[in-house]
Design goal:
Strand order of the largest sheet: 1-2-3-4-5-6-7-8
Oligomer: single chain
Largest sheet: 8 strands, parallel, barrel
Radius of gyration: 19 Å
Strand content: 15-25%
Structural class: alpha/beta
Number of helices: 12
């Protein structure tokens, strides 16, 4: 059973994603290296982005942006190689999709363990409906979304949801900790708790603070995503400087595991070792 399926069946307390995104800079060899590095951190999954530049950007208005994206994006064939490699090393494989054509191709060729809809597409109803119809495990980020838009999301798509991870996110790159306002998660949790659906809360982090991830978990986000790189000082692409390295991500994931252990159970209880002290 894949880790994402164990997570949705409540066999595991947390699910951690190393978001490689486009930090491979369009180099398949580098992408494979990053997957292997992510495996060493004890992450549950890696995630990539399947961007078709001609469909994401209006070439007549932004021709330079289209050419720039072509240089840093992986092809479908590259992603098929990465998907197989993740299977070989027992690491879940996720993908962000940005257009209907990509949804169809991912469904037919990649069979990802989960797919993600980016914050920028939170109100892109055609993409959301097509994604929910094709995939069981869907993640959606809610950066920039208002409380009303979040409530509308569930009223509009609730009947189509099988397994959903609803991610709190702050759409700043990087996101200063003073702009995170993680208490917003409490409001989202109240909205989610009113749904009779299999929904998990998540947090996609764009800050450079390990405390943000631990705080989000303590507020109820059990799906956690962090951008991942092998060189956070690389200035060719903005995501590197808000990403964690192998050493940093290993530390964060271990801290998360320690947090889970320290929280214990919902039931009020004392350990046998502590009770024994009463007799002293």
């Amino acid at each position: 059973m894949k880790k994402i399926d164990q997570y949705f069946k409540n066999y595991s307390n947390t699910y951690f994603v190393a978001e490689i995104g486009n930090n491979h800079m369009g180099d398949l060899s580098k992408a494979l290296e990053l997957v292997d590095c992510a495996k060493k951190t004890n992450a549950d999954a890696v995630k990539f982005q399947y961007i078709k530049p001609k469909l994401l950007v209006n070439k007549s208005l932004f021709p330079e942006r289209v050419e720039q994206l072509k240089k840093i994006c992986l092809t479908l064939e590259d992603l098929i190689v990465l998907r197989k490699h993740c299977d070989d090393i027992e690491l879940d494989f996720g993908i962000s999709l940005f257009d209907i054509e990509g949804v169809e191709e991912a469904n037919c060729n990649l069979e990802p363990d989960f797919v993600k809809i980016a914050s920028s597409d939170f109100t892109y109803s055609d993409l959301i409906q097509e994604t929910l119809s094709k995939f069981d495990n869907v993640v959606i980020s809610s950066g920039m979304a208002s409380e009303d838009e979040i409530e509308k999301f569930f009223s509009q798509y609730g009947q189509q949801i099988t397994n959903l991870i609803f991610c709190y996110c702050v759409s700043l790159y990087p996101a200063p900790i003073e702009n995170l306002n993680l208490n917003n998660i409490k409001t989202i949790k109240n909205i989610v708790d009113n749904q009779s659906l299999n929904i998990k809360l998540g947090y996609s982090d764009h800050s450079d603070s390990e405390a943000a991830l631990i705080s989000a978990f303590s507020l109820g986000c059990t799906f956690l995503e962090k951008h991942f790189t092998d060189d956070k000082h690389n200035k060719e692409f903005r995501d590197h400087n808000l990403s964690s390295t192998e050493e940093e991500l290993t530390f964060i994931i271990q801290k998360l595991k320690d947090t889970v252990i320290s929280l214990g159970t919902e039931e009020f209880k004392r350990s046998e070792e502590e009770i024994a002290n009463k007799a002293i």
